[in-house]
Amino acid sequence: MTAATTSSASPRAGTVRVPDVSARTGSDAAEVLNHLNTLAARQQQLQDQLSTLRDERDDLILRGLASGLSSSELAEKAQLTGARVRAIADAAADSSARERVSQAMTKLIEHEPAICTTYGALAEAVGIGSAKGVASSLATNPAVPARAGARVLLLRWANPALGGYIIPSEEPSWQTQGDDTASRLECLQAEHLVVQVTSPNGPVWLVPFDRVVADAEALGSIIS
After folding, report:
1. Claim to verify: residue 124 and residue 193 sit in the same structural domain
2. Could you tell me the pTM of the whole model?
3. pLDDT attached to residue 60
4. C-alpha angle 61/59/143, rounded to 5°?
5. Per the CB 3.0–4.6 Å rule, which of 5, 8, 176, 186 could disulfide with 180?
6. Domain range holding 201?
7. CA end-to-end span of the chain, whole Å?
8. DSSP class per residue in 13-78
9. CB-CB contact of 189 with 205 (8 Å)
10. pLDDT for 102-121, tens place per residue?
11. Which of 100, 84, 102 is nearest to 143 (CA)?
12. What's 155's domain CATH number?
């Protein structure tokens, strides 16, 4: 009797063995993450260095302009356009203006008794070219609370016949900040800066002339 022979099945032709790559895949993933983390840290360092260099460049440009160098000459040396140099100068002027307005308003609010001023007087006192520039600075200056800005009045509100600046009961272009919905009139009422008088058109609220410093020189002595 012939013994049955057994043989292990041979691999099918064309079958490819797939190596176990799970360990290597995990290693690759860790390497990728570590490399990305290193690159991110390096990128942040370079961005910080670039920011420092830009600040130094801008300071040099401002010093150059103050020394009488032309914007075109500075632009050539800094490898910038003339428009960019002028934009740097304008931004510095805006920042300086906001700071001067902020400091002036702090002194104005601290003054006793409480007083108001006008956009024009404040502009001249702090060296800003126009009343419109002051209005813009107040509207965009987070260092000046809106209730403080309520004390800066429009010259056209002055009414000599009534003896003061008439404050409109509604002023859509002026508003306080955040959840504070008080009007300018309400802000001034809270500071006891307005009185109610009778005009030909009925009762109005006004800030008496003696509570408004409309002269730039006089205001300058208060905020200096």
Report:
1. yes
2. 0.63
3. 87
4. 125
5. 176
6. 98-223
7. 124
8. TT--PPP--HHHHHHHHHHHHHHHHHHHHHHHHHHHHHHHHHHHHHHHHHHHHHTT--HHHHHHHH
9. yes
10. 999 999 999 999 999 999 99
11. 102
12. 1.10.10
Question: Is residue 100 very low, low, confident or very high in pLDDT (cuts 50, 70, 90)?
Answer: confident
Q: Which amino acid is at 8?
A: S
Q: Could you tell me which of 176, 196, 179, 195 has the C-alpha nearest to residue 187? A: 176
What's the domain count of the chain?
2
Q: Are 148 and 218 in the same domain? A: yes
pLDDT of residue 69: 79
Does 18 or 37 have the greater pLDDT score?
Answer: 37
**Which tokens sit at 224?**
């200096």
Cα separation, 85 vs 78, whole angstroms: 9
In a domain, 92, yes or no: no
Among 100, 95, 60, smallest CA distance to 80 is for: 60
Decide if 121 is inside a domain.
yes
132/169 same-domain check: yes
